[in-house]
Amino acid sequence: MTERSKTISIDGRRIGVEERPYVIAELSGNHNRDIKRALKLMQIAKDAGADAVKLQTYTADTLTIDHDGPGFVLQGGQWDGRKLYELYQEANTPWEWHKELFDFAASIGISVFSSPFDSTAIDFLEELNAPAYKIASFEAMDIPLIQKAASTGKPMIVSIGVTNLPEAAEAVEAIRATGNDNICLLHCVSAYPSKPEDANLATIPHLSKAFDVVVGLSDHSPGTALPCAAVTLGASVIEKHVTLSRTDGGPDSSFSLEPDELNRLVEDTHAAWSAIGRVNYGIKGEDEKKMSQLRRSLYAIRDIQSGEEFTTENVRSIRPGFGLRPKYLPKVLGKRAAQAIRRGEPLSWELVS
Predict the structure, then answer these.
(1) Would you say 14 and 208 are in contact if contact means Cβ atoms under 8 Å apart?
(2) What is the pLDDT of residues 248-274, one digit of tens each?
(3) Which H helix or E strand runs over 273?
């Protein structure tokens, strides 16, 4: 395997393990067919400190056909009984909105890109100069789609939620075959919502080693705990769905973050990344250096005359830590004071004869 930098860049923002986590706010269908709501969600994402907003670019006709036969009607889960066609009609982001959404993102200083679901969507997003492409989990095995997006040379973020290891390898190979090596793989559990016990976050460092790419997490679990854990395992990208309020409803609202939760996600994942640091068993920072003074050490616990023998009656291991280390107590006992020592004075070797 050739040596790779394991970094990508979107709109000049460098992404990799040496950088703070790149947080993507997934708009999905939570605009509830209201462009003002979509714009408000984008502003919320910016205010929360997210790095990007992600859209989904499809129509019901580019994803499926209007049919109610076996497989075309969902069974179980939050969308039980819904026809695929009707669900995608409800959840899609109208193409006529895209330019306004892209222009608004530029005006407030947040990146915006999308998941294309067919080749026409890629052509359309290229006209808008999308800075990256996200391939959704269920499209991660669509090699022609992946190669068309990758051939633009732009960063490729691929969710591999329902993809096995050989299929993930095919996707990576398809991208690299175009000469594009700007790849991020997102570990993902494609359940809505997903359960923490199904997360298997240990997959994240394995992905990094297996493919030598930037890795991250597309998370559909409630709350923000899993993204924080993922960051400590090497996730450089975190993607979460966002909504104004879960009570407003919407196709993805039940597993989406509300504004205050998105704020917490950004703050906590950044804190988790900062906490990784390096291997260090010594004093960790100036604050701990000050507190280290409270370690135990050897002190005179009563006045000791010059020449007097050190005993357990006049020397003890106590706090603070300015005297000899406690391990030297057996060596000190039985020796004599080189000079008079006052109660509360730390012992040093100069005081021991």
Answers:
(1) no
(2) 877 778 889 999 999 999 999 999 999
(3) helix 259-276
